Amino acid sequence: AKSGLAEKICYYESSMDEAARVRRNTARDLWTAVENDELRLLYQVQRSLGDNSIVGYEALVRWQHPTRGLVPPVEFISIAEECGAIIEIGKWVLAQACEDAAKWNGDIKIAVNLSPAQLTDPDLVAFVRQALYRTGLSPRRLELEITESMVIADRTRALHILRQLKALGVTIAIDDFGTGYSSLDTLNAFRFDKIKIDRSFLKDSETNPQARTIIRAIVALGRSLEIKVLAEGVETKNQLDLLKLEGCEEAQGYLFGRPEAVEAAEARLLAQG
Ligand code: C2E
Ligand code: CA
Ligand code: CA
Ligand code: CA
After folding, report:
1. How far is the C-alpha of 20 from the C-alpha of 2, rounded, in Å?
2. For the whole prediction, is pTM greater than 0.90?
3. What DSSP character marks residue 261?
4. Residue 233: its pLDDT value, please?
5. Ligand 1, atom 22: nearest CA belongs to which residue?
6. What is the pLDDT of residues 83-103, one digit of tens each?
């Protein structure tokens, strides 16, 4: 009879093959996702904690795959980065987000996530300028979110492109703040307009007093550097109260709303008046 171990090894190998196969197929399908019009944007509301007004929406991409259904970004963004399709996907996201936001009334920001690879694309700055021009969206309404890792990868070049983007009049937010290797160094290297406190700190804040102290310190840091601070991942009233007590300016999370289709985001804006 076959030994259990041999069977386990076989199973392990075939599941490795299976994972590799899924990644390969995903990469292949990603190359045609844009031209086949399979990408969708959802929008998540961002609110001021001072007067509860809507300050912006973050654009979050989804992939409507012909057989797999709605695929979340965790299942394809890293593959798109690996195979290079992220450049086309990122451009589609930028163009679509600007087009949608240009129709909204008021001074509502549209926040768009940028991948590290996009910050090395020589066409990025011209593409953003063109998207703004074509849609008529005011540059100060566009906010680009970048994570620390992307500044670290090719720092000199990334910083150069960030400065060019800022010269267009768009604002730059540092995403997932506090989770990178050198948050303070990154903050020091560039004049960011907004810090987004990673949701892990808020998640821990009710059970771990240290997490709350860190939130307090980031809010103080933002205040002294004159950088806006937004807390991500607010799920409970308790967390909201804590953020208000600590003087955090803006927040985003399921408590205010899940990522929603553009029609729902527009209805929410109209309801606010
Ligand atoms: P992120 O930029 O940190 O976006 C926030 C994520 O947290 C979103 O997940 C959002 O749905 C989720 N979230 C918001 N509020 C809450 C909350 O209260 N509780 C919890 N548990 N989660 C909350 P999503 O949409 O699945 O996106 C995941 C990540 O995929 C994003 O993280 C971002 O890194 C990436 N991503 C999404 N869209 C794009 C895109 O257009 N381009 C690029 N390059 N990356 C994207
Ligand atoms: Ca983000
Ligand atoms: Ca984030
Ligand atoms: Ca994240």
Report:
1. 26
2. yes
3. -
4. 97
5. 233
6. 999 999 999 999 999 999 999
Q: Do the strands 39-48 and 250-252 form a parallel or antiparallel pair, or are they unpaired?
A: antiparallel
Task: Tell me which residue has its CA closest to atom 45 in ligand 1.
Answer: 113
Strands (E) located in the chain:
39-48, 54-65, 69-71, 109-113, 142-147, 171-177, 194-197, 228-231, 250-252
The closest residue, in CA terms, to atom 30 on ligand 1 is 73
Of the residues 57, 89, 113, 150, which should be mutated to test ligand 1's pocket, given the most ligand atoms within 8 Å of the CB?
Answer: 113
Give the ligand whose atoms come closest to the C-alpha of residue 43.
1
Helix, strand, or coil (residue 143): strand
Nearest Cα to Cα of residue 229 among 50, 97, 42, 98: 50
In the predicted model, residues of the chain with pLDDT beneath 70 are 1-13, 150-153, 273
Distance 60 CA to ligand 1 centre (A): 6
Max CA distance (Å), the chain: 74
- Does residue 60 line the site of ligand 1, with CB under 6 A? yes
Q: Is 178 near ligand 1, meaning CB less than 6 Å away?
A: no
* β-pairing verdict for 54-65 and 39-48: antiparallel
CA distance 81 to 76: 9
Per-residue model confidence (pLDDT) at position 8: 65
Please report the pLDDT score of residue 181 as a whole number.
73
Q: Which amino acid is at 268?
A: R
